[in-house]
Amino acid sequence: MIASGPALEARNLAKRFDGVRAVDGVSFAVRRGELFGFLGPNGAGKTTTINLFTGLARPDSGSVSIDGIDCLRDPRAAQARIGVVPDESNLYPELTGFDNLCFCGALYGLGKAIRKKRGAELLETFGLAAAGERKFAGYSRGMKRRLAIAAGLIHRPEILFLDEPTTGIDVAGARAIRSLIDGLRREGTTVFLTTHYIEEAERLCDRVAFVVAGRIAALDSVERFVQPELARHVLRISCRGLGGNTAEELAGGFPDFEFRVPAAGEIRVEADRPLPVGPLVRFLEDRSAEVTEAVRVRPSLEDVFVRLTGLEAAAMAKEKKGGGR
Amino acid sequence: MKSWIAFWNILLKDMRSYYLKPPNISWGLIFPLAWTSMFFIRSGLGLDSVPALLPGVMGISILFGTTSMLAVTVTFEKKGRSFERLLLAPIRLETLMLAKTAGAILFGTANAFVPVAMAAIISGLPGVGWGALVPAVVLIAVSSTFLGLFIAVAVSEVFEAQTFSNFFRFPMIFLCGLFFPIDRLPVFLRPISYLLPLTYGVDIIRGAVEGPSRLSPALNFSLLALFCLALFLASLRNINRKWIL
After folding, report:
1. Reported ipTM
2. Contact between B136 and B223 (Cβ < 8 Å)
3. Options 3.40.50.300, 3.30.365.10, 3.30.70.1350, 3.40.50.10320; CATH of A8-222
4. Fewest beta carbons within 10 Å, which of A30, A39, A60, B69?
5. Do B90 and A56 touch (CB under 8 A)?
6. What confidence tens digit (pLDDT) does each residue in A75-90 have?
7. How many CA atoms lie within 13 A of B170 on its CB side?
8. Low-confidence residues of chain A, pLDDT below 70?
9. Does any CB of chain A come closer than 8 Å to the CB of residue B23?
């Protein structure tokens, strides 16, 4: 039993599918008790990375270890230490919620009495006690997600992989799941969380890695990522009747500021000094645009993500349909 | 890790979720009953036809009973991704697949004894060598189940599994000596008969029910066991290659 060292470690991990580099030389370590976020758009290699750790895929090169155990050399010992919540709630539709939990416990060798006790406790903790005897097929999407997380915890793993836990869940459901994840972190569980919702990672994670096209673009603590951004001044201007080249015109008129158009009818202005709202609004109105709102914005992890990866966070979040935020 | 707990619970879940469902119980009973009745009536030989027909009916009942179920318990769960749960569990792949196939083996074995029960009621089955018949039934069930597993792993859709199964099953009815002696097959077809595990299983049953088998029981049992091992190992290899990417 190895008690020191990282909970999870990947070294020069690489995996190709049909010639496409899904994971391309990824290295990182997750500390014990840490909530580590793996952020990126669809196809960035998040789920493949999880599969490489959990035994559902084998790397072309590099190594992965869990609790110091080489996942390739001793996959069963590594699997015994982890809980996995896949991106799809893939429990058994014909079984009840309670029976699903007991079955998952049995897969990890838990005796009948322990399975039943923990199953009942988890249903209570996850707010599913009243639905415990209902078949999984009849659960709502949020309930299915909560039960899938409970199933990943039935054998009390010290390390939990959560793949897109709130995708497709309504706002209330997503909040409940985030609260449960936060609770796990406080109890000392190491959590590896993949998500494309940046605000979720900012709210929950200790450290995050931005992953794009199979590579880690940046990795640091949320605080250290956001801190330099806080010195920046950001203004979001909403307006109607914007011309196609307004951003270029603004950049010409205000060369010290940075302008972006993240969505139609919206301009984002950034600078290292306080932003003069009046001249900006007048500039736009002189070009027949109707300014409806100008709001100062607190810089966030999303700004860091956009700056480092060049990807628009909003577009990334829209990739997954039905995601209620 | 107590693998036996996982093994037992996978088997128990499959039995409850699939094999003990009313449609499967009725299928397991009606199918062998229908085959037995059909051949018994068709032969027109009365009670004398029972020993000649029983090995074939038993063989066909096991073959269809086992191979049909694997398409559901493996292909369906793979498609619905619940099979991933099993692959993520800290149990050896061999143990996992034995647990997933154990239900089909039991189902196929039970299927085989429906015509045996009927035959026992009709003729009393005097002089049957139970010591050879029972292990032969189990080994046929194992080999047919592993054939079903091999097919289930090779495809991704349930309907593909059923179609692919028929590609093997229907020729086996004619080629394995179930109802037509292999000696009466065209010469060019006979080598194919000896490439199919059911040939050896049915030969053992025929020896136990009707009289001496064509090949020695030891050779039949050995070859049947070898087929079981080969099909299981080939299936594991395919799972490793295709499902653990």
Report:
1. 0.88
2. no
3. 3.40.50.300
4. A60
5. no
6. 999 999 999 999 888 8
7. 5
8. 1-3, 312-325
9. no
Question: Which pLDDT value is given to residue A312?
Answer: 66
| Domain boundaries of chain A, sorted by first residue | 8-222, 233-298
Superfamily name and number for A233-298 = Alpha-L RNA-binding motif (3.30.70.1560)
Q: Are B245 and A86 inside 8 Å of each other by CB?
A: no
Tens digit of each residue's pLDDT (9 = 90 or more) over A148-176: 999 999 999 999 999 988 887 788 878 88
Per-residue CA distances from A61 to A21, A73, A209, B71 (Å): 12, 14, 20, 34
Nearest to B84 among A17, A77, A90 (CB): A90
Q: How far is it, in rounded angstroms, from Cα A289 to Cα A286?
A: 7
CB pairs under 8 A between A and B: 72
Residue of A58, A88, A108 lying closest to B89 (CB–CB)? A108
* Chain A interface mutation, best of B2, B4, B8, B9, highest count of A Cβ atoms under 10 Å: B9
B177, B203 in Cβ contact below 8 A? yes
Whole-angstrom CA distances from B113 to B118, B147, B220 are 8, 21, 21
Q: Whole-number mean pLDDT of chain B?
A: 87
Please, which residues 87-146 of chain B have a Cβ atom closer than 8 Å to chain A?
87-92
